[in-house]
Each structure stands twice: as C-alpha cells, then as structure tokens.
Q: What sequence folds into this?
C-alpha cells in the first residue's frame, strides 16, 4: 500500500458546509458553475479515507460509487473532477471497468444511471450522485439499498442543478427529516467563478429558467408547452429491436449544445427516440464523424437538420450522409410533436422516449411559452430547447407529408 501526498483545496463557504456535513443523506443544489461536482468529489475522496465531514465514521479501505446521468457526462465531467481532486491518491484506474483503486486500498466505482437496475451490486460505504435531478427516482431507491458495507449504514449525497419539482425536491424539500440535509447555492456564490461569465449567463437566461439554472431554485414551471408529456407514459426502457426506418433530428451548436436525436419508426408508425447525443464545442468535422457512425449503425433514411447552417448540411452531404434542411416553422412543429404525445386508442402515445435521453426528458419538463408585451404566450422561451428543436425537426420530417430521401452510396466497413 502506498502513501499519497496531501492536497489542499480552497472551498467557498457554502461549498465547505456541504463537504463538511455529517448528514447521512445530503444534497448540494445550485446553479450552473457553482462547484457542485467538485464538492461531491471532495466528499467522496474523504469518505474513501473513512471521513464524513471531520469525523472518521467509516471503515477504510472501503468501496464507494460515483454516478452521472450518462456515460458521456460521467467521462467528460464527473470522472475528470474526481481525478482532479484525488491526484496521486489514485494508484490504478481501469477505465474499461470504471474502477479507481486508491493508495489506501479503497475502491471507487464509476457508473451511468441510464439503466437503474444495472446499479444493483455489492455492498458499498458511500455513494455520490452527480447531476442527480436528471436521474429516475428508482436510482435513489437502488443505491440507498446498497449502502451496507461492513453491515453498517452508509452515506449518500447528491449534487445537482434543479430540474423542476421532481423527486429531489420531494425528498429534500418536502421530505426533509433528521439525517437528511440540503444546501442551496446560486451560481454567483462561487467566488472563484469569473463575474463576466455569470453576467453572460444573466444576459442569456430569464424568468423561471434563470431562477432554476442560476439561482438553484426548484421551479414549478408554468405555461409548459408540452403538458401532455409524462414520464410514466412517454419514457421507456424497452424500445423495439428493429424499425421500419429511422430518421435523425439535428440542432447545430458550439457555444450552445449541439444535439443529434435518432428516432426509429415501427410498423404502427410510432416513433421511438432511441439515441441522444448532446455536446458543446464540437466542430463540424466531429459532427460529420458522428453522423456517419449513426448512419451506418441505424441505416438512417434522412437527417433533418437545423436549416440555419447550410454549410454544415453541405458537409454532411459531401460525406454522403443523407441530410437536408428541416422545416423550421415553429408553431406548426410544436403542434406536430404535441399530436404525437397524445395517448391513442391502444393506450400508447405515438412518440416514446428512451430513459437514456436525459436532456430531452429534462427539456420536456421545463419548456415554456414566453409572454409577449401584451401578456400573450405565442412563442417558446429560447432557452433549454436544443433537444426539443432537434426533435421538432425530425417529427416534422415524419409528419409533414415529406417522404424520407435516399441517396446512392457506397457503404464502408
């Protein structure tokens, strides 16, 4: 067993109170950029040494689990944050197994929560759930049941930006009890964040969305565009194995997230959103590579793309990807999506969403109408809509009487 060097990390006050709490169940709920993941990972490193707050209450070495909503989010954000915090305390990291071994013999397992039942496993001493408001409630139930290593009650903590008044709000606001504690912070409370960044966010976000994303408030969104959407009706873990054909909706982005959504259509004409790609700062060359991979995997008929970037569409077509500019008539497209959300005579809607499409689900639950100067709601708030724009493009391609196009191509291995 080797000895790691000591690392000193300066925390701002609210962050320090969260890291130092002795609560068995804790939630750090804050605006974007408030250092939530960093705080959660620091708490994890301390727990792997047996410490919760300032007290040594866990046996060590021990086993802990860190989760994120999807594997890309786990890889790109949460794992990076833990590696930054742990430094040379990590003596071995098996990326394929998602397992870090620390200098004192403790083990940290990294997992996606896309399929909650797959989280069942051996007993653990602690669990950190990053961006937990994007999880299904079942994740909490499964993970709480695993906190029993050495026959002792373990510790659980979450770090997240709110996503409406979902299960996190129900547990940590409505269901607050002894041993369970919530720490709420705004983005501006992170004194290590450049004020110019915060001001840029304030210039971009407004209304309820700003309260959620910047102030860390649990918002009961009013004037939802898609009130028909319900997780228990529209979210699935079992899409069909095969489809009659497949289409893709694409919303370009760089500073804002770019989105690619894959929709399979079954023999009844029902659309299944089976794959979601959501990424900032991705160059067109990377989108082309992704587009070719998706086209090969799903045998896509048509990529319906945001028409505001014709050069990007041309790049797709130059790569023999069957792409075209989507119909961007907003209100008509919104109505077509709403039509597909309606439950039909067979008890099912005509649009189903994979549980792994966590950003799309979150957008469905917060996408609002904007008030114009007359107090009328006639267009969407232009925020938190990147997935739903891509979805609208794909649905309009399916339902506006436009047949999918095909091109003659040479397939490669």
A:
């Amino acid at each position: 067993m080797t000895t790691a060097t000591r690392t000193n990390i300066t925390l701002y006050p609210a962050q320090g109170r969260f890291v130092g709490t002795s609560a068995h169940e804790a939630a750090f709920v804050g605006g974007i950029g408030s250092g939530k993941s960093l705080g959660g990972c620091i708490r994890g490193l301390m727990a792997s040494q047996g410490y919760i707050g300032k007290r040594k209450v866990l046996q060590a070495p021990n086993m802990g689990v860190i989760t994120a909503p999807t594997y890309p989010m786990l890889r790109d954000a949460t794992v990076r944050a833990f590696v930054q915090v742990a430094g040379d305390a990590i003596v071995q990291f098996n990326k394929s197994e998602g397992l870090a071994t620390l200098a004192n013999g403790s083990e940290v397992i990294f997992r996606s929560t896309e399929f909650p039942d797959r989280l069942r496993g051996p007993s653990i001493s602690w669990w950190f759930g990053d961006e937990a408001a994007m999880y299904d409630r079942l994740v909490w139930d499964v993970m709480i049941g695993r906190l029993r290593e050495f026959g002792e009650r373990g510790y659980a903590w979450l770090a997240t930006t709110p996503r409406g008044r979902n299960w996190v709000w129900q547990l940590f606001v409505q269901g607050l009890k002894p041993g369970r504690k919530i720490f709420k912070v705004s983005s501006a409370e992170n004194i290590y964040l450049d004020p110019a960044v915060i001001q840029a966010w304030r210039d971009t976000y407004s209304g309820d969305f700003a309260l959620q994303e910047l102030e860390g408030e649990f918002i009961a969104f009013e004037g939802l565009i898609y009130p028909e959407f319900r997780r228990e009706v529209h979210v699935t873990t079992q899409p069909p194995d095969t489809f009659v054909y497949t289409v893709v909706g694409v919303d370009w982005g760089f500073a804002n997230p770019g989105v690619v959504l894959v929709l399979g259509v079954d023999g009844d004409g029902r659309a299944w959103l089976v794959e979601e790609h959501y990424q900032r700062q991705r160059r067109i060359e990377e989108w082309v590579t992704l587009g070719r991979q998706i086209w090969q995997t799903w045998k896509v008929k048509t990529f319906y793309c945001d028409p505001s970037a014709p050069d990007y569409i041309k790049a797709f077509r130059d790569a023999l990807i069957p792409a075209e500019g989507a119909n961007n008539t907003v209100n008509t497209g919104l109505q077509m999506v709403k039509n597909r959300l309606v439950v039909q005579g067979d008890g099912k809607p005509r649009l189903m969403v994979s549980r792994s499409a966590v950003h799309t689900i979150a957008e469905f639950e917060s996408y609002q109408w904007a008030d114009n100067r007359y107090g009328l709601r006639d267009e969407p708030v232009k925020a938190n809509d990147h997935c739903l724009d891509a979805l609208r493009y794909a649905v309009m391609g399916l339902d506006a009487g436009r047949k999918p196009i095909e091109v003659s191509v040479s397939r490669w291995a």
Residues 191 and 338 are 42 Å apart (CA to CA). Confidence is low (pLDDT under 50) at residues 402-413.
